[in-house]
Amino acid sequence: MAVSRCHVATSADEGMRLDACMGQNGLYASRSAAAKAIEAGRVLVDGKQATKKHVVRTGQAIVYEPDVESVDTPLTGEHIPLDVRYEDDDIIVLSKQAGLVCHPSEDHRDGTLVNALIYRYGAEGLCNVQGDRDRLGIVHRLDMDTTGLMMAAKTDDAGQALMDAIRDHVVDRRYLALVHGVISIETGMVDAPIARHATERTRMAIRDSENARDAITTFRVLRRFEPAARDNGYSLIDCKLFTGRTHQIRVHMEYAKHPLVGDPLYTSGKPRFEAANLGLHRQFLHSFKLSFDHPITGERLEFEDSLPDDLQEVLDSLSDREM
Q1: How would DSSP label each residue in 189-231?
Q2: Vertex 319, ends 312 and 97: CA angle to 5°?
Q3: Which of 100, 108, 197, 204 is the most buried (most CB within 10 A)?
């Protein structure tokens, strides 16, 4: 974990659920905030990850990563350009640029999508359905260096409805990914649970642990590119998320032995030559299609987004190797 603190359970904590204990002792602002931190792998009990239902025993060392101190401090708007593709009184659809973090964290206290949304719409003009003032407008996320279409909400009713739709798998979210290796099958599915990595806070992993959450990704091969001297070929795939776990496509494709080109974190199975990343310093992953029913009117909305220039240039460079 990053900056961490330790609470040694007392006799007053004996028998309490972990999330309740942490909330009651003020380690987090509320029991629900504690539960979120536990599920995110930011809490260890005697050096091991535990579930929010863990029964606390006297003397146990609860090591936790505290929430960002600025969470309860009103965030300020920042003039960060936004590529808004659609908006009305309830929702926003935008194409997120590379390098933009969705909401503040310990490593990124400002310069986020939330700051940009506040600047454009005001804090009062954004939903607050995640219970944290640093996530105004947010109903789902894209990784910092993943580009493309995502939703945000202006009202709580719309925001909650969108989150429910994502949970119920009725939002169609599609991603273009360029992966290492030539995938021989036309379509595939990865069904493997994901949890925080046991020792590296910034990574997720396929794990059979109490904290692991179900995760399903399907993919369809669109194009294949033959191997060359310093790589093992490439496949351009259309990925569909049925769940929305952190780093899901990146973790699942590494698990399938086809890591994303340019990915700095999930590199197992990629060729040893740096040239195999084709000059990319971020993962080749772009949210290119988004379809859902409007949460208030019920109207079917469908959006598509072309590749940003850096990813399109990489794809164009492979054109003479297409199989």
Answers
A1: EEE--EEE-SS-TT-EEE--STT-B--EEEEEEEEEE--BTTB
A2: 10
A3: 204
Burial of 160 (0-12, 13-18, 19+ CB in 10 A): middle
Domain boundary among 167, 189, 205: 167
Spot the catalytic one: 90, 134, 143, 145: 143
- Do 241 and 139 fall into the same domain? no
140 and 160, same domain (yes or no): yes
pLDDT in tens, 237-268: 999 999 989 899 999 999 999 999 999 999 99
Q: Tell me if residue 143 is catalytic.
A: yes
Residues 308 and 269 in one domain: yes
Taking the C-alpha atoms of residue 139 and residue 136, their distance in angstroms, rounded to an integer, is 9
Separation of alpha carbons 190 and 179, rounded Å:
15
- Total domains in the fold of the chain: 3
Residue 315, Cβ neighbours under 10 Å: how many? 19
| pLDDT tens, residue by residue, 270-283 | 999 999 999 999 99
Residues 176 and 314 in one domain: yes
280 φ, ψ (degrees, to nearest 5)? -80, 140
For residues 177 and 308, state if they share a domain: yes
Give the structural domain span for 51.
5-67
Cα 172 from Cα 188, distance rounded (Å)? 17
- Contacts of 167 by beta carbon, 8 Å cutoff, 6+ apart: none
Among the three residues 167, 190, 209, which one is the final residue of a domain in this structure? 167
Q: What's the pTM?
A: 0.80
Contact 1, 43 (CB under 8 A): no
